[in-house]
């Protein structure tokens, strides 16, 4: 049982690290013009040699960008809270009970990540200025999509897991 618990904790921590990197790293959108330095854009800034805010990111027309930012931050926070709740429940629950509360929090975290990545997929060309139009999705975008099934399966494992001897 100790080995199973170690794998569950490791799986959860991998999901949390993936969410942190996807939220913080500056590579949601990448433009690589020929002969020039690549331009990387994340949810807040576009950077090449210097960083500048995304065009119109503070206006009402770009509220979906603010929703993406909020959903990714909320998903990361919920994933961390779920981990701490799981640790608390590990020592507080009676034998045979399930980790339902930590599972619900983890499933909400995966829902937030899915919402953020889906909105970014649908609206990514709307908030990029003309210099960023001809780009492609970056590593942080793909990491966000990979972290969705990781957090979802982690939440489902918590839901099915019973405390045993």
Automatic annotation (TrEMBL):
Its record classes its membrane topology as:
Multi-pass membrane protein
Q: Which GO terms describe its cellular component?
A: apical plasma membrane; Golgi membrane; membrane raft; nucleus; perinuclear region of cytoplasm
Which GO BP terms apply?
regulation of glomerular filtration
Q: Classify the main location.
A: membrane
Q: Which domain of life is it from?
A: Eukaryota
Keywords attached to this Swiss-Prot or TrEMBL record, sorted alphabetically, are: Cell membrane, Cytoplasm, Golgi apparatus, Membrane, Nucleus, Transmembrane, Transmembrane helix
Is DNA repair one of the keywords? no
Where it sits in the cell: the answer is: Apical cell membrane; Cytoplasm, Perinuclear region; Golgi apparatus membrane; Membrane raft
| Key word Nucleus present | yes
Q: Where are the transmembrane segments?
A: 64-87, 99-122, 142-161
Q: How does it assemble?
A: Interacts with PTK2; regulates PTK2 activation and localization. Interacts with ITGB3; regulates the levels of the heterodimer ITGA5-ITGB3 integrin surface expression. Interacts with P2RX7 (via C-terminus). Interacts with ITGB1; the interaction may be direct or indirect and ITGB1 has a heterodimer form.
The entry's family comment says:
Belongs to the PMP-22/EMP/MP20 family.
**By what name is this protein known?**
Epithelial membrane protein 2
Q: Which organism is it from?
A: Betta splendens (Siamese fighting fish)
The encoding gene is emp2
């Amino acid at each position: 049982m100790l080995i199973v618990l170690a794998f569950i904790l490791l799986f959860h921590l991998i999901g949390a690290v993936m969410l942190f990197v996807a939220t913080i790293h500056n590579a949601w959108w990448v433009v690589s013009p020929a002969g020039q330095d690549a331009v990387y854009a994340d949810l807040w800034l576009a950077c090449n040699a210097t960083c500048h805010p995304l065009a119109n990111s503070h206006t009402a027309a770009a509220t979906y960008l603010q929703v993406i930012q909020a959903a990714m931050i909320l998903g990361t926070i919920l994933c961390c809270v779920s981990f701490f709740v799981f640790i608390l429940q590990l020592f507080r629950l009676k034998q045979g009970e399930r980790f339902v509360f930590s599972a619900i929090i983890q499933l909400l975290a995966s829902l937030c990540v899915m919402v953020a990545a889906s909105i970014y997929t649908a609206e990514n060309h709307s908030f990029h200025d003309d210099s960023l139009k001809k780009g492609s999705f970056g590593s942080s975008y793909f990491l966000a999509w990979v972290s969705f099934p990781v957090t979802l399966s982690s939440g489902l494992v918590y839901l099915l897991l019973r405390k045993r001897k």
